[in-house]
Amino acid sequence: MIKEREHLLEKISIIAQTFFCLISYGASLWIYKFIIGQPFQFTDEEKLVGLIIIPLWYVLLDLMKLGRILRARSYFSLLRDYIWVEITGIIALYASIKLLSIKSVSEEEIFLFAIINLFVLYCSTIIYYTAFRIVRRKGYNTRELLIFADEQSESIIQHIEDTQDWGYKICGIVTDSPKLIAVFGKQLPIVPTNIDIDNYLVKNTVDEVLYCKGEANQDEIKRIALACREIGVVFYLQSVLHAFKELNLHFTLKNQLPLFAHKNIPTNYIALKVKYGFDFIFSLVVTIILSPVFLLIAIAIKLDDNGPVFFVQERVGLNGRRFKCLKFRTMVTDAEALKLQLLSQNEQEGPVFKIKNDPRITRMGNFLRKTSLDELPQFFNVLTGEMSVVGPRPPIPSEVEQYKRWQNRRLSMKPGITCIWQVSGRNNIPFEQWMKMDLQYIDNWSIKLDISLILKTVKTMLTGSGQ
């Protein structure tokens, strides 16, 4: 119930902030024209830019979850996120203006809009949250909540108490648990378990009832639910599911069937679609722009030893899917056969095989590896949907067969051309730490993290620090 209200308030906040963006845009145009002495009047092109701002900033604010209320979050981290939104938004807006050949909106007006918009969004959010908290803490517009609880319900009750900003006031805890009575008895009303729920709901102010016992009694649940239905009181059932809180279960619909799901992979639908869209566009642009580089590398590999240009190897992708991974060949043509003779020199722990000064690497291959240019053909794998630009590196099947069970979770996202391991030392990192880095990426994934890793990868390529 708190989550439902929170979700609604988030959307309202995002819509309001998007409206503030339009106001900031209008103010920036007025101020700029006032400074240069021009009469203020919206042109058709300026109106078009305003229409671009609405969906662009709505998506960015939503992606950064800037509609959520401030609890433990610092004002500095909030400001940092708003700065990221402004930088990203202005770059996208400027690109749109150039693409549409809009002449009447100058770079100075866009820059002024960014400054004013950052100030308005940040200050309005701080004022809104502060006022919201004051109103809620004074008890206005609250919902009276009756809770049926046992010992396993302590964290739920404490969470509701800690989030009073959302307008819920616990009017009673129906329990006989000595632990709950000891913890909450002095601050909240304790109601005996033998109450006549029909009479209690009629004689007391109760807006909503929450049943959150760990040990669920089906007859008791049915009786309480029917009593609530008869007089129009909202009834919520958490039942035994909160006992599995470490699984982060959430309600969902699958083919119209109500189910509880557990996911420990990124699930933000819009953000993932942005990622996949970015992967395709970025890879297409890279392959077009760097096509001369592709050709030069191919010629250099041929001149080096007259062997094949590409090295094609079966790799394991998303959730065990097999695919053919492309790379520029960096080793001699019989490298796989020679590998058996070099196994004793392996410098990596675990199932992977890595040698710092691998004798199988060709002269051209050594340059390609140091600059990471050997990975460029994998942009074709991205275009076909088998890989992403950023993600855990795709392993070979023989490595996966030796994984510990927990290490298989790195296959729960599409493999990538680059990831945290790629820009953090590669061969110098122990295998188990490498696996943990991939899980760290999955658990903390965001568009911002992808962009950061891409920039670090470019730096690695330019400095030639790859291995």
Can you describe what's shown?
Helix 6 (178-184) links the parallel strand 2 and strand 3 (190-191). Helix 2 (44-63) runs antiparallel to helix 3. This protein folds into three domains: 2-137, no CATH class; 143-261, Rossmann fold, CATH 3.40.50; 269-463, no CATH class. It has 16 helices and eleven strands. The two termini are 52 Å apart. A five-stranded parallel sheet has the order 3-2-1-4-5, with helices on both faces. A two-stranded antiparallel ribbon has the order 6-7. A two-stranded antiparallel sheet has the order 8-9. By secondary structure, it is an alpha/beta fold.
Strand order of the largest sheet: 3-2-1-4-5
What is the mean pLDDT?
Answer: 84
- Report helical residue fraction: 40-55%
Number of strands: 11
Q: Quote the distance from N terminus to C terminus.
A: 52 Å
Gyration radius over CA: 29 Å
Taken as a percent bin, the fraction of beta residues is 5-15%
Total number of distinct structural domains: 3
Biggest beta sheet attributes: 5 strands, parallel
The class by helix and strand makeup works out as alpha/beta
**Unreliable stretches covering 5 or more consecutive residues:** none
Our count of helices gives 16
